[in-house]
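User: Can you recover a sequence for this backbone? Please restate the input before giving your answer.

Assistant: Of course. Working from this structure:
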């Protein structure tokens, strides 16, 4: 390490040479690097490696981010100015995980994440199609996805379900576990190395908060008891995104349960074989369903119009590239 105690502590929050170099390229403004660990309505909780405290966007930063259609997310790095408790500058991100809202706007979820732990229960929460959408969200942001299957005790056939998921995502790690197990850190050890940042994603009630407690080694995050087996519903126990440091030196961000996840067109196109569309198509009422307005179409029921449009576009024949003319323009 650098030998500087403060920089060593920043490294435990995920600070590295790449971020330091990116910060050096920015215009000089007052402040020292901090990481956003919680986001509230009008302020943030940040950490400088030694302690955590509250901060607000400086009016100039607020104006800059608003103009760019951007904002601060948990996991971001920023410059912090003690006088006024201001965030004065946002450090360029390594990654940003986001989703598309119903109105088409994008919602920033977490930033500067290395690995996304995508959690799904093998009970009533079981939905390979939704898990594949989570995976595409991660891959589109250059974040490593790890598929974590929980609630084995409620599975109809846990091994068959694991094989199905592994077959749909053959290049992605699949881990089955009891989120309450002391072995959870060992099972996820390859992704929990010092300096790494992970984020938990999944529906409410799948055991994300329980898994976080297992990884932390203490119950810092309150969990909600899952209701009766017949409905497989869980109570929301995480209402905001927050980052915590793990004993081994990694950082973990817990996120509220996502009721749905719609991908942007760009996300849907990244390394996409549209296996979720094909999987759903097998459950349409009619074997010759065109996935438009037919009754009983599982594709239209489960996927967003943008996702279906991207799939249709992938089937369209590609136009041949035009050769450049003498002055660089394509020949007609």
């Amino acid at each position: 390490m650098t030998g500087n105690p403060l920089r060593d502590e920043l490294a435990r929050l995920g600070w590295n040479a790449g971020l330091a170099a990116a910060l050096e390229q920015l215009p000089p403004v007052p402040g020292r690097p901090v990481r956003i660990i919680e986001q509230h309505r009008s302020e943030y909780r940040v950490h400088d490696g030694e302690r955590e405290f509250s901060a607000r966007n400086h009016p100039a930063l607020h104006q800059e981010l608003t103009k760019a259609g951007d904002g601060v997310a948990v996991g971001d790095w920023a410059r912090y100015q003690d006088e006024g408790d201001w965030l004065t500058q946002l450090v360029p991100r390594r990654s940003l995980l986001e989703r598309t809202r119903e109105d088409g706007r994008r919602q920033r979820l977490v930033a500067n994440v290395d690995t996304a732990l995508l959690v799904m229960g093998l009970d009533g929460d079981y939905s390979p199609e939704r898990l594949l959408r989570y995976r595409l969200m991660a891959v589109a942001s250059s974040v490593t996805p790890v598929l974590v299957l929980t609630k084995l005790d409620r599975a109809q056939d846990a091994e068959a379900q694991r094989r199905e998921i592994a077959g749909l995502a053959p290049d992605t790690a699949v881990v089955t576990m009891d989120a309450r197990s002391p072995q959870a850190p060992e099972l996820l050890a390859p992704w929990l190395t010092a300096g790494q940042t992970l984020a938990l994603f999944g529906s409410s009630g799948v055991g994300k908060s329980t898994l976080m407690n297992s990884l932390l080694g203490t119950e810092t995050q309150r969990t909600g008891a899952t209701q009766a087996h017949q409905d497989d519903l869980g109570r929301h126990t995480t209402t905001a995104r927050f980052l915590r440091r793990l004993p081994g030196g990694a950082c973990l961000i817990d996120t509220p349960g996502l009721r749905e996840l719609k991908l942007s067109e760009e996300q849907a196109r990244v390394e996409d074989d549209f296996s979720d569309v094909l999987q759903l198509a097998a459950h349409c009422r009619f074997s010759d369903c065109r996935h438009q307005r037919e009754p009983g179409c599982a594709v239209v029921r489960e996927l967003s119009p943008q996702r279906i449009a991207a799939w249709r576009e992938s089937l369209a024949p590609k136009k041949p590239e035009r050769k450049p003319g003498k002055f660089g323009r394509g020949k007609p």
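That completes the design. Confidence is low (pLDDT under 50) at residues 224-238, 321-332.
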